């Protein structure tokens, strides 16, 4: 199958949960934990016993014979795991998608348990992955994808400071070592969407969660608040090409409604503004190609715990600067 598509001329593969393909023998039961409906089978299939054997065989038989890019989506992979998966001497994959930074605003039980982002934890995560893979492997860099809410609504301010927030997050990402991924609409600052009723949502994960929590008697407004923050449909609304009907995406009926903010956030508008988010992304890409230090230099984190060093931020948190 892979050879078929590579011979068609595709440039590589993004491999869904590829580190789950090796299972421990015996069909072992996962351990039950408080708050879970089922046992956790993760220890028996995440980074399983023959995963490296399988990937090396794939590389030998197919991947090594083409000039392509490979990235493995790998929940539960640590930096130490990523070094093995991405070190060229092991002949497996070019890079992996990690998920640690996507869990920093969730509680211990599930992603719908919304918590404020801890900026110190985010900086620690970035430092860990940048330093441990340096010279040993390769990072993939992303804020957004089809399974995650829009980063400006998540880690930034998608209202008054939307443009500034997007440019800041884009600059942070593109100044790191690794390969940046730009997800559709990220380059114009698309935001999360707040549909009025559950009938407007399409994602099966969201619908299942809504039905489960509704049956438990949890108020609709609380459920919808979680969906507005973390629902996958935030990333799946149509691309906002213009301020015309359906964001210029179609003259027909799209499978999911467009985000109403397409009237102000769209490609046509971005192209007319030389200071837009779109052109900022272009400048970042240009700098990465021009300045080798961005992709080859090492990483040193300054002000690891900013709260101990910034009087301004302490005041924002309601603390006195000398506390």
From TrEMBL:
Gene3D superfamilies: Glycosidases
The reaction(s) this protein catalyses: Hydrolysis of (1->6)-alpha-D-glucosidic linkages in some oligosaccharides produced from starch and glycogen by alpha-amylase, and in isomaltose
Keywords: Glycosidase, Hydrolase
Signal peptide annotation: none
Entry-linked SUPFAM superfamilies: (Trans)glycosidases
Superkingdom, taxonomy of origin: Bacteria
Span of domain Glycosyl hydrolase family 13 catalytic: 1-236
InterPro entries: GH (IPR017853), GH13_cat_dom (IPR006047)
GO molecular function: oligo-1,6-glucosidase activity
The keyword Lyase is annotated on this UniProt entry: no
SMART domains tied to this protein: Aamy
Enzyme nomenclature, EC number: 3.2.1.10
Recorded family membership: Belongs to the glycosyl hydrolase 13 family.
Alphabetical list of PANTHER family matching this protein: ALPHA-AMYLASE FAMILY MEMBER, OLIGO-1,6-GLUCOSIDASE 1
Protein name (record): oligo-1,6-glucosidase
Lineage, uppermost ranks: Bacteria, Bacillati, Bacillota, Bacilli, Bacillales
